[in-house]
Amino acid sequence: MTEIPDDHPRAESLRTRHRIEAGVEKGITSKQGLIAQGRGEAYDYLLGEETIPSADRAERAAAARLLLADHAVLSVNGNVAALVPGEMVELADAVGADLEVNLFNRTEERMAAIADHLRDHGATDVKGLAADARIPGLDHERAKVDEDGIYDADVVLVPLEDGDRAEALSAMGKTEIVVDLNPMSRSARVAAVPIIDNIVRAVPNVTKHARELQDASREELEAIVSEFDREAALEQAERAIRQGDLD
Ligand code: PTJ
């Protein structure tokens, strides 16, 4: 693998690509995950590869929402496991959430490889392998969830999937926090808190906000959640993408 010099203008983006490639080689990420990353990269390029102010507000609202949850679950797919395994474990610890593997291209081998990978990064309990409950109204593999995990959760973090699971979870009455660089994706559009940012920046920033809010009262957390304007967040991201200058 070619060494990427730190002063390369696209160093971060190239390193992220390599992490996805390594995920495919390890049997963690699906080949479709390479395509998904390419799609995400294009939006990120137009966003200036930075966390725009509306995304930072969404990340703070997400931290508050996770801290308020009775039972929060962070869903992990093959791209998330390749890009931010340790960061997801840290976020789960910071907000007292469970981690659950949930795959579109589900195989027992990939499920086990991702669970092991998360444990190698410090996770103690990884859900998703029991698959003893189903999300109603979905007829593909993403419907398979753990009864004491996503099925029971009141708040679910759903990163990187443009799909119908987000709609089905919302129909179950769950509060969804979505991380997706595409503000027009269906998942971002149904989310209570859509985070339009690269997952590699978003997850550590949600954790940072959660640590800052650790001692905040319920009222303060509720105020942060209710002041967050999801429509404005989607609109501001779309405007940044459409009008961004490419200097
Ligand atoms: O691991 P599996 O089997 O569950 O499959 C996972 C993928 C990602 C392959 C599957 O969910 C998929 O095909 O997703 P889509 O439909 O391509 O949607 C992925 C969404 O995530 C797109 O809207 C991308 O813009 C967005 N995205 C891709 N990379 C990133 C991202 N958003 C944030 N950060 C990224 N790094």
Per DSSP, what share of the residues sits in E-state strands of 2 or more residues?
A: 5-15%
Return Rg in Å.
Answer: 17 Å
CATH topology annotation: Rossmann fold
Coarse morphology: globular
Structural class: alpha/beta
Assembly classification: single chain
Largest sheet, strands/sense/barrel: 6 strands, parallel
Offer a few descriptive terms.
single chain; 247 residues; alpha/beta; Rossmann fold; 6-stranded parallel beta sheet; two-stranded antiparallel ribbon; 11 helices; 8 strands; binds ligand PTJ
Written account of the structure:
The protein is an alpha/beta fold and 247 residues long. The chain has one domain: Rossmann fold. Helix content is 52%, strand content 11%. It is built from eleven helices and eight strands. Strands 3-2-1-6-7-8 form a six-stranded parallel beta sheet, sandwiched between helices. The longest helix has 16 residues, at 31-46. The chain is globular, with a radius of gyration of 17 Å. The two termini are 29 Å apart. Bound molecules: ligand PTJ. Residues 30, 32-33, 36-37, 39-40, 43, 77-79, 83, 103-105, 160-162, 179-182, 185, 198-199 line the site of ligand PTJ.
Short description:
The protein has 247 residues and is α/β, with parallel strands linked by helices. The protein is built from eleven helices and eight strands.
Topology of this structure?
Elements: H1 11-25, H2 31-46, H3 53-68, E1 72-76, H4 78-83, H5 85-95, E2 98-101, H6 108-120, E3 126-127, E4 133-134, E5 144-145, E6 155-159, H7 164-171, E7 175-179, H8 186-190, E8 193-195, H9 199-212, H10 218-227, H11 230-243
Parallel strand pairs: 1-2, 1-6, 2-3, 6-7, 7-8
Antiparallel strand pairs: 4-5
The structure holds ligand PTJ.
The site of ligand PTJ has 25 residues, from helix 2 and helix 4.
